[in-house]
Specification:
Length: 494
């Protein structure tokens, strides 16, 4: 027997053994288990960063040197051939780009143990294949099953075996296609989604284009408008946790705005009142006829949303620490969490290549906001992955002391029935001692929203780059958040 025949026989036997093993497995592990969510995350990142984003460096690090890839149409491939064909067949033509997406509900995970110790897992599911062309909606073309063997190497998950088989016509009822139709029906240029389960980011999905031509990559940057405020709030609360700042110390010790210097009410302003929107300030001073800041009621007596309050706090903080807000947030939030694609200040060299341009309802683009100084309330530029990391750190309380964490999610003031403001986040009372923390952002060409549910460790990030992006929140929330999403919508609409 020739060497080629011997190899072919060995590969065939390997496939047969693996398929027989899969066919005889009794049940997958629970879909809420840590291992399942870990593998779901790995699959999502591999497809978005690897196949769809063509991050070959990431793929090379993720597939094992001894990779064995079996394809029912393309034959057997080792690591070298697998990477070469990925470059050639998937990543060589950006004008007509193949895209792969997993059908969420199809994923199953089966652990692999050796003497009671986990050393790997088998993952199975269904993928759908799309073709992406400039200025066109992704076209669904096919579907196939996959089986992947993941092994842990030095604490990192690696792909050691991949089977892609049963290629055929697609099942057209998956949520992915529904979302794409949703975007088309509502004229939404780009959508970024982050899904958090059991305190882990399990899905990153970005749809559409950056500017009507360039396909939006998984790490696209979005101006998230007022989703800036929770990041600012957590920075200040971290300073409080470290004993470097006080929630209830009057801000006049560090800063007094000239517009309210003669109003004694400036002495009542505290960080707590700023973060819960009880300053008495308008949202922005330019909304007043004289363009000057003023108190519209006594601080601490009622709720009124105010970006000016956050800017007031920024100036006090900067004077206290002799650092600008960007420096403080980098030190206390961005670097500890690993938010490397996030900034308050525009970086032309880094940001221009990946920014999703904002549009009005008629499809007219707005000018990109390019802040040279940090705003505490608005215009943060970030990615779905980075902001999801931030929410996870908040939810898992990786940043605050236990006391400050409790204060952060304590209802400070009611804004409507079953809805309150805490310190930096809105609080939805879902009943049964369960709350959701949330914040939204809306500006020219921006509609964004984020949720976390501390009790169940769920989270959802939705970024859009159009004035009416909020039109698609409800169906997305209902799909990914189920009963919780419906309850939040119910609170909002009553």
């Amino acid at each position: 027997m020739s060497k080629i025949k011997t190899m072919t026989k060995r590969f065939s036997i390997s496939i047969l053994v693996l398929l027989l093993f899969i066919g005889n497995m009794k049940a997958q592990i629970d879909k809420n288990s840590t291992l399942y969510l870990e593998l779901k995350k790995q699959d999502s990142l591999f497809f978005e960063r690897g196949f769809n984003g063509c991050d070959m460096s990431y793929m090379e690090k993720t597939v094992a040197d001894e990779l064995k890839f079996y394809h029912d149409k393309g034959g057997f491939q080792n690591k070298k051939l697998f990477l070469e064909r990925t470059k050639q067949n998937i990543c060589s033509n950006p004008e007509q780009k193949p895209i792969r997406r997993v059908i969420e509900n199809s994923l199953e995970v089966f652990p692999l143990y050796n003497n009671g110790e986990l050393y790997g897992a088998i993952q199975t599911g269904d993928h759908q294949f799309y073709t992406r062309e400039n200025n066109k909606a992704d076209v669904l073309g096919g579907q196939a099953k996959f089986t992947t063997v993941w092994t842990k190497k030095d604490g990192h998950w690696m792909m050691s075996d991949i089977l892609s088989y049963d290629h055929g016509e697609p099942n057209r009822t998956e949520m992915t296609e529904n979302i794409e139709q949703l975007l088309k029906d509502n004229n939404i240029p780009a959508l970024g989604l982050g899904v958090i389960e059991k305190g882990e980011l399990t899905q990153i999905k970005v749809y559409g284009t950056l500017d009507g031509k360039r396909i939006a990559p998984y790490n696209s940057l979005f101006n998230v408008a007022s989703l800036t405020k929770p990041v600012t709030a957590m920075t200040v609360l971290r300073l409080v946790s470290l004993g470097k700042w006080d929630l209830d110390e009057p801000l006049y010790s560090y800063f007094i705005d000239p517009d309210v210097a003669d109003d004694p009410r400036n002495r009542k302003l505290t960080t707590r009142l700023v973060l819960s929107h009880q300053t008495g300030f308008p949202n922005w001073r330019w909304m007043n006829k004289d363009n000057k800041l003023n108190f519209q009621f006594d601080p601490g007596t009622k709720y009124q949303y105010s970006g000016e309050g956050f800017e007031y706090l920024r100036k006090a903080i900067e004077r206290k620490f002799h650092k600008n807000l960007e420096q403080l947030v980098k030190e206390y939030i961005f670097q500890p969490i690993g938010m490397y694609d996030t900034s308050y200040i525009w970086n032309e060299k880094k940001d221009a290549k990946k920014i999703a341009i904002g549009y009005d309802k008629n499809g007219k683009p707005y000018d990109i906001v390019k802040n040279k100084t940090a705003s505490a309330a608005d215009d943060l530029v970030t990615s779905v992955e980075d902001y999801s990391k931030f929410l996870i750190a908040v939810m898992n309380n990786d940043l605050l002391s236990p006391q400050v964490f409790e204060a952060m999610k304590t209802k400070q003031i009611e804004t409507k029935k079953n809805k309150y403001f805490g310190l930096g986040f809105e609080i939805y009372d879902l009943g049964n001692n369960e709350i959701a923390l949330s914040h939204g952002g809306a500006d020219k060409g921006v509609n964004t929203i984020a949720f976390i549910v501390p009790k169940s460790k769920q989270g959802l990030v939705i970024f859009t780059n159009v004035d009416h992006g909020h039109n698609i929140y409800e169906p997305i929330m209902n799909h990914y958040f189920g009963k919780i999403g419906k309850k939040i919508v119910e609170i909002e609409t009553k």
